C-alpha cells in the first residue's frame, strides 16, 4: 500500500523533471529563474511600459483640451475654383469689384 503512493509520487516527480528540460535540482531552478527574469525585462516590462505611456498620453490630450475641434473628413473643394462649374474661374474678387 505504501509503495503505491511512493511510485505515484516518483512518477509525477520524474514527469515534472522531464517536462522542465531534464535538468535536476538547483540547476533547473536557477535556469528557469534566469529565463523568466530575462523574458520579463526583455518582453513583458517594455510592452507594459509602452501601453501605460500611451494611456497616459491619451488621457493627457483628452483632459488638456476637451473642446478642441478635430477635423474628421476632408473639406469639399469649391467647384468653381476647381473648374467643375464654368464661369469666373480663379478671378480675383477685388478686380471684378472695380469693373
Automatic annotation (TrEMBL):
Keywords associated with the record: Membrane, Transmembrane, Transmembrane helix
Region ranges (Disordered): 71-99
Membrane spanning stretches: 25-44
Compositional bias ranges of the Basic and acidic residues kind: 89-99
Protein name according to UniProt: Uncharacterized protein LOC101498951
Organism the protein comes from: Cicer arietinum
